[in-house]
Amino acid sequence: QAKQRGRNCIVAYEQAFDRGAGERLQLVLQLREALRQEQFVLAFQLQFDRSGTPVGVESLLRWKHPERGLLAPGHFIGVCEESGLIVPIGRWVLREAARRWRMLADAGFGDLRVAVNVSAMQFQQGIADDVAAVVREFELPRGVLEIELTESVVMSNPEAAVASMQRIRGDGVCIAIDDFGTGYSSLAYLKRLPLHRLKIDRAFVRDLGTGADDETICSAIIRLAQSLGLKAIAEGVETEAQWRWLQDWGCDEVQGFLFARPMGFDDLLRQLRLRGG
Ligand code: C2E
Ligand code: MG
Ligand code: MG
Ligand code: MG
C-alpha cells in the first residue's frame, strides 16, 4: 500500500513536471526580472480592535505584471518558494513594509503595527539579521513590526525556531502564528514560544454565527490564546454575524473584507485620514 502510494506520488510529480516545467521556468525568469525592475508592490489590509479602532496593517505582496495586471500571491508565491526567489523577495517585502511604516508614522499614524508574512524557506535561511537591519534603518520602535509565521514553519524544527524567534523578539519585533488551527501545533511548544498573537484561519471564521461546529474551534482558539497570554485575531471576517460572534466571545482583533480590503499605500493613507486619526 505504501509502495503503491509512493509510486502514485512519483507519477503525479512527473506529470506536473512535464506539463509545467517550461512554463514554470519562464515564470521564474519573469519573477527575477520583476524584482530587478521593481514590479512588486505591497497592499495593506487594516486590522481593528474590538471597538473598531485600527491597530495595524498586514502587508500583502502584489505583482504588477506588465501584461496581466496586478497579481495576488496565489499566482506566483508557490514558484517563488520552489525556486528560492522567496528569499530575496521576502527581504524586499520586509524592508518595504518597514519603509511604509516610517511613512505612516511621519503622517501621524505611528501607533499602527505593520505585519509581514514570512515563508518557511525564508525563515529557515535566517531572518534575524535582516529584521535587525530594517529595525535600525527605519528606527522602528518596539512593537510596531510583526512577523507572521505558520505553524508548520515553527513546528518543523521548534528548537531552531525558538532561538531565531527569541532574537527577533529581542529587537522588539512581534510574532504572530498565521492560519492558526490549520496546522499541527505542539501545545507544549506553543507555551514556550515567544509569541504575541494567534491569527484564527479564515476557514474557521466562515461559519461563525450560524451555530456550526467551527464555533467550537474558534472559541477554543480564543481561550487558548487567553490562557497563554496571547492576543487572538480573526482573519477573513466578512459578515456582521461573524463579527458579533467574535465580539461576544472576546476575540481581541479582527481583519476582513467587512472592515477593509487590502489596498495600496495611498488609499490606506486616505482611509486613515478620513477616519480622522
Ligand atoms: P494570509 O497571510 O493568510 O493573508 C490573508 C489573505 O486573505 C490575503 O490574501 C487577503 O487578501 C485575504 N483576505 C483578507 N480578508 C479577507 C476576507 O474577508 N475574505 C476573503 N475571502 N479573503 C480575505 P492574499 O493577499 O491573496 O494573500 C494570500 C497569501 O499569500 C497570504 O495569506 C500569505 O500566506 C501569502 N502572502 C501574501 N503576501 C506575502 C508575502 O509578502 N510573503 C510571503 N511569504 N507570503 C505572502
Ligand atoms: Mg498573513
Ligand atoms: Mg492568514
Ligand atoms: Mg490564509
From TrEMBL:
The name this protein goes by in its record: EAL domain-containing protein
UniProt domain EAL: residue ranges: 24-276
